Amino acid sequence: MSAETIATIWAFLIATAVFLYVCMDGFDLGVGILFPWIRGQEDRDVSVNTIAPVWDGNETWLVMGGAGLFAVFPLAYATIMPALYMPIILMLLALIFRGVSFEMRFRAETEGQRLAWDRAFSWGSYAATLCQGLALGAFVQGIEVEERAYAGGWWDWLTPFSCLTAAALVVGYGLLGACWLVWKTEGELQDQARGLARRLGVLTLLLIALVSAIMPFLQPEFRERWFAFPAILAALPVPVLVVFLGWRMFKALRETDGHPWRDGLPFLCALGLFFLAYTGLGISMWPMIVPPELTIWDAAAPRDSQLFLLVGAAVLIPIILAYTGYVYWLFRGKVKHGEGYH
Fold first, then answer.
1. The pTM is what?
2. How far separated are the first and last CA of the chain, in Å rounded?
3. Confidence band (pLDDT; 50, 70, 90) for 275?
4. Which letter, b or e, does each residue of 18-27 get, where b requires 16 or more Cβ atoms within 10 Å of its Cβ?
5. 112/248: higher pLDDT
6. 166, HSE (Cβ side, Cα atoms, 13 Å)
7. How many C-beta atoms surround the C-beta of residue 219 within 10 A?
8. 295 has which bridge partners?
9. Where are the domains of the chain?
10. How far apart are CA 240 and CA 234, in angstroms?
11. Angle between helical axes of 260-285 and 237-255 (0-180°, round to 10)
């Protein structure tokens, strides 16, 4: 295989790892985002127990995405990191803070301690999601590069567009969390989650539309992908499918009745919305890895390094997928009061 082919394969692998992280860690961050609206300590315990068996494994894909970028696209890594140091460091600190509070809330000896750790869990979820959204918005908006190095300022990541994407990601993760709780819980907690999912679903669709309307005007290359003929023919199915999935999600939320498939359908529709948003981002950016300057082939490591790492990935990725799938299957079904991983 040529170096260009291997780099393309790696680009898809890293993009897939990032998407899997967004999907899997998105719903457990979403549960933390919903904590202020979940009434009652018992319901909050059930909510946390729905994600307890899987939450730390979900972050495997974040590690893979970052490590893959560092190893296979070192120029992109060396350019992106200086531009996004602040939101990425704050995100990692928030994830650590959130992980500690996740475990400590079950070991609290008093109601006041439990409430304090609940707040820490929620604040950590908000902070991590906001930082991810800020980093995404700054990345999409473009990173200034001169002579193959970052040439922007310390605060370039903080813009109106990055703040918009941060807000959109908080709402989107909240939707994933609400739909997850609809699937994994029952009774009053499921009713709460269903109501939250309806409201967050409306906001998510509005924010998808707003971000999508702004994006083509961030870079000339983006505009060509969405408005120039015949490229528009490839991009047109995305907004159509977003409308369809949004309609199907709201219909599914009305039909939830305790049946595993029907209760899980809103979550699948929410994941589909994220996939379509991610697909739209890919249509806009391909083959850029650091917009608007660097393509994946500009930033790729030497062919032998890519190939060596690809062999290792071909072994490890199926193993990771297998044990992840097994854990989700093992802890399938509804989580009831008084039951759970802890």
1. 0.92
2. 48
3. very high
4. bbbbbbbbbb
5. 248
6. 21
7. 18
8. 288
9. 3-329
10. 12
11. 160
